[in-house]
From TrEMBL:
Gene source species: Sorangium cellulosum (Polyangium cellulosum)
Keywords for the protein's UniProt record, in alphabetical order: Hydrolase
Protein name: Amidohydrolase
Pfam families, sorted: Amidohydro_1
Single Gene Ontology MF annotation: hydrolase activity, acting on carbon-nitrogen (but not peptide) bonds
Record's signal peptide: none
Gene3D superfamilies: Amidohydrolase, Urease, subunit C, domain 1
Length: 434
């Protein structure tokens, strides 16, 4: 088994992404919040930074990025890209300029200041996969927040793990009814939760696609391969793959434990993952299915992180988490569309740094820094279905940008040194880096 790569995996090979088969063609998604546009039309030129445009190609040293209004109008090497007369010049020497980061799995969890803080740390779009849309009302009144792509409450069966942020559906008809209501209220994705049986998962995926939105799931009691074949577009949490990776008798024991008692998953997932084998045919078959279908996988490693020496961490926690990281690396090597989701607040990161911490864990899992940056920008834009206007630094795209000090391709921890953030062509006030 491969050892874990260090934080600085400096190799920068071109990133290859699969061409998905059998995926529904859906319209672009819309954020629920209006995003302020710049007052003036004076162009902004970022001059001399290294451009990492989100698409996975070689970085452009000493680049020029020009923004006019809410759009990027030019991006390229300094000699080949004109700086318009009268532009506001931002000196980029020593900085890297990237697309605004996209967070596929953010929970506000009653912390109304967290969306705004995440914006200051470079997250310009987020998806909350499981809360009422009005849970963001207070956050939006506090100041600028990222573009909000909300799923509304998750759909779960009785008895739900989180009643406060779930809608209970008891059969396929109720599932279709709930999908219709959520989409009418602005949901751009539907979140399937783990008590729902396979038939209901299938009904939700079909109803979501009929309404033009994706379906993504946290699984515990439904086999991941079966759920993907039933039409899911995304898998939330690497742990959702667990029961598909162990012998059937062990998977069934876990299912029954969680069906009997939701909390059984909290310890049970580490036992399950401690026992998985990356070399087993069932593992490579599942990864091949994910890659072929183009299913997006949001590992959210940071929420599961348990290290030797952590309070209460057992050998099972530590080995189980190591295997979650190994599986994430193996998934990417197998061509699976791994994306970045922070979970909002996590044990191993200070408040507001969960996204950066997740990027570091993905590098530790064996993704190159370039793969992680693409996963958090262009690939997440495809997952959100906003790649028509977001996810890369290209002429015509909306001007969501982050400038960091140093070179995140050499060391992903540079993503913590946030110097400036632009949302829709406007600078975000007082970003804080370390
Ligand atoms: Zn979650």
């Amino acid at each position: 088994m491969a050892t874990l790569a260090g934080l600085c995996a400096c190799a920068s090979t071109p990133v290859q992404w699969p061409s998905p088969e059998g995926q529904p063609r859906l319209p672009p998604a819309r954020e629920i919040n209006p995003i302020a546009r710049p007052d003036a039309t004076r162009p902004v030129a970022i001059v001399g930074a290294t451009l990492i445009d989100g698409r996975g190609g070689p970085p452009v040293r000493d680049a020029v990025v020009v923004v006019r209004g809410d759009r990027i109008v030019a991006a390229g090497a300094r000699g080949a890209t004109e700086v318009p007369a009268g532009a506001e010049i931002v000196r980029g020497a020593g900085l890297s300029v990237l697309p605004g980061l996209i967070d596929a799995h953010f929970h506000i969890d009653g912390d109304d200041g967290l969306p705004g803080l995440s914006l200051q740390r470079g997250v310009t779009s987020l998806r909350e996969p499981g809360n009422w849309i009005e849970a963001y009302d207070a956050a939006r009144k506090l100041g600028p927040v990222p573009r909000l792509f909300l799923a509304g409450p998750m759909l779960d069966g009785p008895d739900p793990a989180y009643p406060e942020s779930a809608v209970i559906v008891r059969d396929a008809a109720e599932a279709r009814w709930a999908v219709d209501r959520l989409v009418e209220r602005g949901a751009s994705a539907i979140k399937v939760y783990f008590r729902l049986p396979l038939g209901t998962v299938e009904a939700i995926a079909q109803a979501a696609h009929a309404r033009g939105v994706i379906a993504t799931a946290h699984l515990e009691t439904v086999d991941a391969a079966a759920a993907i074949r039933a039409g899911l577009d995304g898998i939330e949490h690497i742990t959702s793959l667990g029961t598909a990776l162990v012998p059937p008798r062990e998977a069934e024991r876990y299912r029954q434990a969680v069906i009997a008692r939701n909390e059984a998953r909290v310890q049970g997932r580490y036992e399950l993952f401690r026992g998985i084998s990356l070399g087993a045919p069932r593992t490579s078959e599942l990864l091949r299915l994910l890659a072929t279908r183009g299913t997006f996988v949001t590992p959210t490693l940071a929420i599961f992180e348990r290290r030797a020496g952590d309070e209460g961490a057992t050998e099972t926690h530590v080995r189980g988490f190591e295997n979650m990281m190994r599986l994430t690396g193996a998934a990417r090597r197998a061509g699976v569309r791994v994306v970045v989701g922070s979970h909002g607040e996590v044990p191993g990161a200070e408040r507001g740094w969960a996204y950066q911490h997740e990027m570091e864990l993905l590098v530790e899992s064996g993704l190159s820094p370039m793969e992680v940056l693409v996963a958090g920008t262009a690939e997440n834009a495809r997952f959100f279905r906003v790649d028509d206007r977001l996810g890369s630094v290209e002429p015509g795209k909306l001007a969501d940008l982050v400038l960091v000090e140093g070179d995140p391709l050499a060391d992903i921890r540079a993503m913590r040194r946030v110097r400036r953030v632009m949302l829709n062509g406007r600078w975000v006030a007082s970003p804080q880096g370390d």
